[in-house]
Every structure is written in C-alpha cells, then in structure tokens.
Amino acid sequence: MSRRKMFLKMVTASLLRRRSRMLIALLSIAIGATILSGLVTIYYDVPRQMGAQFRGYGANMILVPSGEEKMTVEKAQECLTVIPKDQLLGATPYRYVNVEMTSRQRTFVAAATDFEQVQSTSPYFAVEGRWPEGDREVLVGKETAETIGVKLNNVIELSYKPEDTYVKNTLNMTVVGILETGGDEEAYIFTTLKAMDALTGVSGQLDVMEMSVSAASEELENYAAEISENNSDMSARLVKRVTKSETTVLAKLQSLVFLVTAVVLLLTMICVSTTMMAVVSERRKEIGLRKALGASDQSIRAEFLGEGMFLGLLGGILGTALGFAFAQVVSVNVFGSSITFQPLLLPITVIVSMGIAALSCLLPIRRAVEIDPALVLKGE
Amino acid sequence: MILRAEKIAKWYYRKSGESNRFFAVSETDVQLESGSLTVLMGRSGSGKTTFLHMLGGLLIPDAGKVWVDDKDLYAMNDAELSRYRNRHIGIVSQGHTAVQSLSVLENVMLPQMMYADTDRINESADEWLARFGMEHLQEAFPSELSGGELRRMSIARALAGKPEILLADEPTGDLDDENTKLVMNALREAADEGTAVLVVTHESDALDYADQRWQMNAGVLTK
C-alpha cells in the first residue's frame, strides 16, 4: 500500500466511521452550496428576467432628430442596426401632427404610428374595442373621446391643411378602439403612418422612435452613445424614469442576494466548524498516538484539511445540482420563465464550498495540532 | 546509538504558586546504549511515564537536555523531531491506542508508512503479527480486538520498524504469562540485535531480561 493510498483510506474511513456527524457537515455544506449556486444563478439571470419584466413598463430608449429637421424612416432604421436584433424587443415610430376634426371644429394632436410595434413597446396600452387594422381606422384617446363624445364604430372626419396650399385634405376614419393609458396619450388620436402620409401629403417623416431594448443600464448608455456618435443629426436618449428604476431595483436585489449568500455561508462555516471540533475531540487519542509515532503537525493539518475539503467537494457538487433546481423553481414561479445551466457554476461552487470547508476546519485543526501526545498517551 | 539524558527534570506548579513546585521527575542523568535492555521499575505515579516521554521526544523537560548521539532532541523543530522520532524511536504507549479507521496490519505498518512506502514494510509487519500469534487478525479492526491483542499489536507496531531506541511503557500490563514471555523475549531479541530498549513497568518479571535496572520513587531515579 502506498502512503497516498493509506492517507486517502484514513480520510475516507474516518468520514465513514462518523457517518451521522459527517452527514450533518455534508448537509450544511450542501445547503450552503445550494444557496450559493442558486442565488448566483438568479443573480446573473435577474437582469435578463427583470429587463423583460421592466419592458412591460414601456420603452427605455428614444431616438429623436438633434436639429430642426424631421427624421426619416430610413434614417431611423439605419440607427436601429446598432442594437442587436435579439435585444431589440420593439421600435415604434411616431409622427405627431395637429389635425382638425371637422364636425367638432376643434384641433387635436394625431399620432401616427405602427400599431403592431406599439403593442410590444407599450404593452400597458389598454384598448377598449380593438387595435386598428386598416388605414381608415383610428384609436381615440379616452380623454378626447369623452371631450368630443365619440364612441366605438363612430366615423370621424379628420382634416389637415398643408402650409403651402389653401385646400384641406380630409379623411373619414372609423373609431375602432378607445385608448386608456393613464397618461398624455389619452388626449391623442392614433392613426397609421400611411393614413397620416395621405392626410398631410408628406410621407416618410417621423418625430420620434420609441425603443424597447433588453439590456442593462450601462449597455443601453453605450448603444445610445454609439447611435449619437455615428449620426450627428440624430440623438438617442434613455428614458431615465424606466432605466433608473430598473437599475435601482436590480442593485437592491443583487445586494440582497449577496447578503443572504454571505449569511448562509457563515452559518455553514459555523456548523462545519462545530462538527469538526467534535470530531477532533473524539479522535484526541488517535491524534496523540499518531504524533507519538512521528506524525508532524503538518501531516495532522493535511489530514483534517483533506477531510474538510473532501466534504466540501461532495457538498459543492450536490449543492450545484440542488442550487440549479432551486434557481429554476424561483425563476419559473417568480419570473415565469426557465433558466439555462451555466457550466462555470459547477467549478465555482465546488471551489467556494471547498474553501468554506477549509476555513471551517482552521479552528478544529488548531485544536488537533495543540493536542499533547504525552498527556493523551498517559490517559489524561 | 546512545540516548543520553543530561540533568533532565519535569515539574508542575500547584495552584498556590511557585513555592509549591512539584517535581514529577527530579534532575536525572541517564544513558541508554545500543544492545542493552533497561528496566525501570516504580510504583504508579512515581514519574516513570513522564520520564519515558521526555526521553522519547514527546514531552519537553523543564530543565536539562536529551541527546541522541550528538543531536539535541528538543533543539529540533516539530517537523524534524517528528521525522527523527519516526525513524529512530519506537514507542509503546501505556493505553490501548490505535487508529480505529485502519486494520490491524495497517496500524502496524502506520509508523513506517508515514514517510516511506515499500513492500518490505508489509513483510516486516506480517512477520511481527505472526510472531505474536495475530496473523489471522490482520484485516480486523482495533475495535474487534481484546485488550491483550491491542497491546501485542502496539508492540508489533513499535518493533516492525526496527527502531534504534525502543521505549515501552508497561508493555506487558494486559498480558498473560505466556504472552508476557513472548513479548519480553521479543524485546530482549531486539536489544540483542542492537536496539537500546527501555521497559517501564511495575512487574518484577521483566527484571529477568534486563541488562540495567533502575528504580524510580517520587520522581527520583536510582540506578
């Protein structure tokens, strides 16, 4: 038998002989590792998950012309290429024009847009009736609808007089939906871009492009800066209200994750340390004998450290698997989507678990090294 | 090899302070030489075990030095002293001490396995176990042995490494007459082969095997 084999046998046999104690230590390491790997998984996945949740509160970036000139649809599309397609959840163009409602002799703001995109960038827009499907259908904001007494399926006449003519362009539009947002949008009338082009006689112009991008605050800032740098006539800005609250919530959540992980790992250390102290007390005679036979303090340290790290290894592997299951349950129940396993998490959890186990063994090892063989062999 | 104790002493303080210094072993000069078997007799509590531990590098004397040839045992650091003890000094302790997680054979091999691994270790351990009638217990664990068997196992453990100095504390304490003879003959044989053997005992039978006889009373050694 080789020395290494005997060392391994002593470590494993010692662990097996004290199964119940070691099971407690192993369980506490596994629980610590579970919380560690589970929370770290959530920690790294939360920005993505929370980003998706926050996208429900509206666009987080807007694109506007930096000068007096209007923005063209082509220019806006060009700017969007900076943002990776998988991160761009929606981009809604808006063109605002003051139009006259002939029958009421009043002027309102008409917002021309792409209704399909609106639903992805502003999912909180609530429509009574339905979304417009054709160019002769409009949404009327709730406030406007109440002011002018318009109801679903009413036909309204919108007119616009271009500056360079004396003739008004007029379109008859059917109200297919009443829009409720709780914001300024309730004062607008929403049409398609095509209808607005027909009404104004000018096509391809935009005032603003609202974007919903699934990215962290810093990344968003980088995209905005890149767009503004590449296009001197365009300016990309973050919707601070949304991005700031997203960053604040994430920072608080991540601090909480760190705190909980730290507390659980501390408790794990206390539990493992107490168990190993009891093991040292039980093996006092044996340690004394081994010292008398020529074992150095270093070899006693190595043996207990070996036992602790072996427990850390097992607990780390077990904890990684349980942690992933834990993170999956949390993700599915809280965010409604599953997460993918990060392979790097296994070595990280195992190394941290082994480190925690090694740290927990420091005090018991000190006790073991301090055992006086002369006292033990005398039976004291 | 010569083991020499030079004015070694060990004392303890009682609670009332330095005036009540209690000597476990009073200042003593002794010498153990290769090829001799020395028997140290004395009553329980007379300081025999303390004296043996000081000679074996297990207990630092409060005064004096222990020399092995020209090496001051207690001038070495822990790693050096541990290795030296493992290589040159065999110790049979008083109680029933064994590593519970190892088999009888592995326990006997343990001291030699600490710093080396060769097949000869196995042979030597086999031989000593056979000699003490324990060949059938090689794979057994210490918890399955009787007191006498544990005692013989620890003597086999000390002898298997062929130490140059062998310090045995009550090596025949749990043994019947037959096994006492077996063990004392083995110790005698080790001395005849060049080992310096010290047997600490309170059994007068051991005196028949001795080259030197010492007596200890209340920490004072007389030759």
What secondary-structure arrangement, pairings included, does this model have?
The complex is a heterodimer of chains A (380) and B (223).
Chain A: H1 3-17, H2 19-54, E1 61-65, E2 71-72, H3 73-80, E3 88-101, E4 106-113, H4 115-121, E5 126-129, E6 137-141, H5 142-148, E7 155-160, E8 169-180, E9 189-192, H6 193-200, E10 205-206, E11 208-213, H7 217-230, E12 234-238, H8 240-282, H9 284-292, H10 297-335, H11 345-370, H12 373-377
Parallel strand pairs in A: 4-9, 6-8
Antiparallel strand pairs in A: 1-11, 1-12, 2-10, 3-4, 3-7, 3-11, 5-8, 6-9, 7-8
Helix pairs in contact in A: 1-10, 2-8, 2-10, 2-11, 8-11, 10-11
Chain B: E1 2-13, E2 21-33, E3 37-42, H1 48-55, E4 63-68, E5 71-72, H2 78-88, E6 89-92, H3 104-113, H4 119-131, H5 147-160, E7 165-169, H6 177-192, E8 196-201, E9 212-217, E10 220-222
Parallel strand pairs in B: 3-8, 3-9, 6-7, 7-8
Antiparallel strand pairs in B: 1-2, 1-4, 4-5, 9-10
Helix pairs in contact in B: 3-4, 3-5, 4-5, 5-6
Would you mind describing this structure in some detail?
The complex is a heterodimer of chains A (380) and B (223). Chain A has 12 helices and 12 strands. In chain A, helix 2 runs parallel beside helix 10 and helix 2 runs antiparallel to helix 11. A 6-stranded mixed β-barrel of chain A has the order 3-4-9-6-8-7, surrounded by 4 helices. Chain A has a two-stranded antiparallel ribbon with strand order 2-10. Chain A has 380 residues and is of the alpha+beta class. Helices cover 32% and strands 28% of the residues of chain B. Chain B has 6 helices and 10 strands. In chain B, helix 3 runs parallel beside helix 5, helix 4 crosses helix 5 and helix 5 packs parallel to helix 6. Classes of the chains: A alpha+beta (380), B alpha/beta (223). At the A-B interface, helix 1, helix 9, helix 10 and helix 12 of A face helix 1, helix 2 and helix 3 of B.
